[in-house]
């Protein structure tokens, strides 16, 4: 006898198992934050930190750290409530990286703001057209130091660039043996030497011929060239390595000598990178103080002859004005900050020039 229920009995008994109302579809997707959520949270945290700093509740460092913590925690909690744990953790790591970048940028912004704020008071025509000759208190300028910096840095560039470029050409195009390895090793060593060592080297070298009292601009140029040469070698070497070998092989296939291939094919192709590297090397050494203080000294008068007597430079001028202020000291300190601002502006211009060289003189691929 069959025990299978009929259709009507099955309908009356209902379905076997859980109720249909309990079977809810699983949520396979999550919501998403607005497109400007992260910048908005960052702006709100920055405004709150600035407000606490201006109200005197926290100092600038504590307010900045608090703003970074609020930005990271706020973005994470908001994302977790809307987007889920996985996306929230991704935003948490992104917020940590952004906060670390902004914290690292804060000292740079603080230095620039301080120098601009204190140095702009003496940024006038007199400051750039007068020297410190017979000036004790108010007045005076950096005319002698500005031209001294340009002359000494220009001489250092004339010394360092040919030596550095020829060394890099040898290492990339010709050097294959033990000598190339030794040169590479010494270039690496020279990259990390302290700047004062370069100044002492220049003093010791010229004292062999001119005596212990020798101080002149060319000595500072030699000291700066020692610091520039490894930078020029490294930048030029990397740019030459980026030149495709196919270009060299195509030139060799036309029976062009190797030296002419380097002059007409390799160097023009890498000219943009080499130019920007040389410009950055100049920006690296133009603000050196220790080697110039040892090798060149300081003077209050105009001296545009690097082979006769002491010369003034912006970095040494700023140091001496700040280290040995007059009475009252406010005028010397103003000149020191203005000289530092001038030096920063020169370095910024050189960096922008390097960017422009790399952009406009790079080989065209289209």
TrEMBL record:
Part of the binding-protein-dependent transport system for phosphate; probably responsible for the translocation of the substrate across the membrane. Belongs to the binding-protein-dependent transport system permease family. CysTW subfamily. This is Phosphate transport system permease protein PstA. Signal peptide: none annotated. Keywords: Cell membrane, Membrane, Phosphate transport, Transmembrane, Transmembrane helix, Transport. The chain crosses the membrane at residues 37-55, 61-79, 91-116, 145-171, 183-210, 216-233, 265-286, 336-358. Residues 146-354 form the ABC transmembrane type-1 domain. GO terms for cellular component: plasma membrane. One of its GO terms (biological process) is phosphate ion transmembrane transport. NCBIfam families: 3a0107s02c. Residues 1-24 are annotated as: Disordered. The keyword Membrane applies. GO terms for molecular function: phosphate transmembrane transporter activity. Its main location: membrane. It is a multi-pass membrane protein. The keyword Ribonucleoprotein does not apply. The gene is pstA. It is found in: Cell membrane.
